[in-house]
Amino acid sequence: MSPTILLLLALGLGLAGWLAARARAWTFKRQSTDGRIASLPSYHAWYVALWVVLPVLAFAATWSALAPGLVTQSVLADPAAAQLPAFGFQRQAILNEARNVATGAAPAVFNQQAAALVEPFRDALTFYNWTGIAATLVIAFLAGTWAFLRLKPDFAARTKVERIVMVILLGASLVAILTTIGILASLVFETVRFFGMVSPIDFLFGTHWGPDPMANASAVDGSRYGAIPLFWGTLFIGAIIAMIVAIPLGLMSAIYLTQYAAPGLRKWIKPALEILAGVPTVVYGYFAALTIAPAIRDLALALGVSNPSSESALAAGLVMGVMIIPFVSSMADDSIAAVPQAMRDGSLAMGATTSETIRRVLVPAALPGIVAGIMLAISRAIGETMIVVMAASTAANLTANPLEAMTTVTVQIVAMLTGEGSFDHPATLSAFALGFVLFMVTLGLNFVALRVVKRFREAYE
Amino acid sequence: MSERVAPTRTAEFEARLQKRYAAEKRFKAVGLGAILFSITVLLFLLVTMTLNGIGGFQRVEMDVPINFAEAGIAADPTAMAQPDAVNTLQAQGLAEVVAFFASKELGDEAAAEIGPDAWRDVADAIIEDPSILREEVTFSLPTSAKLASAYSGDGSPEMRKLATKLTAEGKLEKNFDVGFLSRSDATNPQQVGIWGALKGSMLTMAITLMLAFPIGVLAALYLEEYAPKNRWTDLIEVSINNLAAVPSIIFGLLGLAVFLWIFPSYRSAPLIGGMTLALMTMPVIVISGRNAIKAVPPSIRDGALAIGASPVQVVFHHVLPLALPGILTGTIIGMARALGETAPLLMIGMRAFVATPPDGFTSPATVLPVQIFLWSDEIDRGFVERTSAAIIVLLLFLLVMNGLAIYLRNKFEKKW
Predict the structure, then answer these.
(1) Where is the chain membrane-spanning (chain A) (predicted)?
(2) B39–A269: do the CB atoms touch at under 8 Å?
């Protein structure tokens, strides 16, 4: 049963409850002596509708998660499933094929073993479909009736509805915490599994990275999982090359825009800079791989570098730096604008030129904000994926030469998880360990940056 | 006034002043240069993509007149209305008919370079209008990728000779390819289109909007209007601010580990993609929503409370409608970011080769940025132009969304 149908069913039942309850409340209103009831009819209606929709939605969410498992179980219990190969990739492929034919997603089976399972699958799907719909109807009816029977002329429907609304509001704001917990739990869980196979010391301090997804998972060679080259590549591309581009350009743009540019010019330039931040990273990646990287290689050849790599750290870093310019510039813009006008005027009155005022007074005063902006930009750069996936390489390389191929943490996460490796293999699990390190580092940078901004922002007020 | 003051403007002073003024000028020029550099890079990017991409909206075609009266293809309108009409036509030998007329018109050597799936274009035309089977119709059929690249000056010498010959005869030309917007992924760059990816993007965005908008707005209302000042509220705020800055690939890992664990059969479906992107977009909506709600003046709340509205009525009848334009602006910006996002969708398997447009939220799909990524990996030169063309479409969508956000902001911006 598709989630869309369940959702529409829930909304339809809710609407029915809403209409019934409102009609009921209007009867109360007509029958009452003074034409008044404790709550408006629409609150009665919302009370019943919420009591129908919320349980049905809760059930539908649980059911869509459970039903596929139940269907597979009942198919496996069928005698036709007895000659299936033992657990593994092939068994799963046959099951998927039969399921696709049964749901109509595929026209016919290729595998003969799957053909025998189509009918059991179709039966099981129909059975669980109807069970799901029936259960939905029963739940909606029971909850709706219970709520409907509570309606009375003096029933405080509004208070009850508002209480439910408050619970919904609280629930919505808890989603953020649940997401954070979800991220931490999924990363930690898989990372712990990974560290059960590879020692954390090898991972964090080893200098050779070369996981082999096809190697035997039971005899893991810990020396192939040294992540130092990845950390170095990430730092070199994201925190060094990209920042060499982004910090001066971003800072000077912000200074020109706040101190020199005429308001009319500023009105056009600022959105144009913001477009740089809005271009999708996959487009930057394509640009870097197609235009910048070959240009850099040609330039290196012309300068006499022998055999430069076509996938260089420099290409990825330069393009990433351009992408980061607007972040640095808008943070610097804000903190320069926050410096009191009196400080600027004082410096100018002493006879300093505008540039001397900016360099000796405004920038030092705005420094905490600028530094925080740079930290946020670094956190953004080291978490950036598509540019490096497309323009950097997958070869781990511990070198300081920007013309050489280098790989980063995010490239390896993508490489490890989009291969054909199984989920129990340390090569696949290493992606989660890398993700955990990345999450922790960016979290730390963001946290410190926010603290710095909060702490120093009030210095002049 | 008997004492004489030494003149302040000595030559030394003037020289120093000149130096300082020069430094001032240099500093200003550097600032302007920084901005010009950024804008130049942006323009260079856009111009490169446009120049590359214009070719992607075209394809190399050969004109083939087909006399259906001779061909003996039978197609009654009822059979053509069936979903398997293409198979019916294939069984009647339409592919061979097309090949026959092609070699009659162009010669055997050139006919071999008609794209292997070119007859499908003819089949689509017949299904569209079965009455053409009584006439002679000229079709512009796509060539093979080899001939197409020879036309643009690459490829083997024989191919280039053939291309030059056909061009000179006026039989080979580059035409605007309407089908690029209505076809889906294929292995031949001459046959690809972006409709499948575009539809996948729309379905994914629909799920993202349906989840992120209500949750984001309700959370913003709670935090701004009702939340008591305590450690729980602080925790919620800190986690929202942190989520807004978490790298997107981490959300992909979450989707992979949690959503695909709960729903293993919906791999690479827009449903899972939308849920993952919704978690990423929600913090953006909450943050912009809180700013919009904060901007509604307290007097409106006080006025409503004073005439007996309950706190919930105040928020839903007065504050929310006034804050809505601001919330919508933030939502559109968040959605634009989600539309361009690639990395988390790679994690949950939306990188599969999908040759048919998805027909629902649970069928396998790909999205526009991922399609761009997949094509960028293709070795065939024809894909370079196609990739740039897809990038133009994506950038146009983003431009429209951002333009809408700016329009909304200007139209509804209120000073209280």
Answers:
(1) 44-66, 127-149, 164-185, 230-251, 272-293, 313-340, 361-382, 431-453
(2) yes
Question: Rounded mean pLDDT of A423-445?
Answer: 90
Q: Which residues does residue B139 pair with via DSSP β-bridges, in sequence order?
A: B64
Quickly count: other Cβ atoms within 10 Å of residue A454's Cβ.
Answer: 11
Between chains, do A435 and B253 touch, taking CB under 8 Å as contact? yes
B254 closest CB neighbour out of A183, A290, A390: A183
Q: Which of B46, B230, B250 to mutate to test the interface with A (most CBs of A within 10 A)?
A: B250
Domains of chain B: 60-176 (no CATH), 195-412 (1.10.3720.10)
Amino acid at B379: I
CA distance B81 to B175: 29
Token pair of B268 as six digits: 């690479």
Contacts of B131 (CB under 8 A, 6+ apart): none
38-97 of B, contacting A, C-beta below 8 A: 38-39, 41-42, 45, 48-49
Q: Where along chain A do its domains lie?
A: 3-155, 222-460
Strand partners, B173: B61
The pLDDT tens digits of the residues spanning A232-286 come to 999 999 999 999 999 999 999 999 999 999 998 888 888 888 888 889 999 999 9
**Nearest 10 degrees: Cα torsion B169, B172, B175, B178:** 140
Contact B225, B315 (CB under 8 A): yes
- Whole-angstrom distance, CA of residue A428 vs CA of residue A417: 6
Q: Counting beta carbons within 10 angstroms of the beta carbon of residue A298, is it exposed (0 to 12), middle (13 to 18) or buried (19 or more)?
A: exposed
CATH top-level class for A222-460? mainly alpha
Report how far residue A201's alpha carbon sits from residue A219's, in angstroms, rounded to the nearest whole number. Answer: 18
Give the number of A-B residue pairs with CB atoms closer than 8 Å. Answer: 256
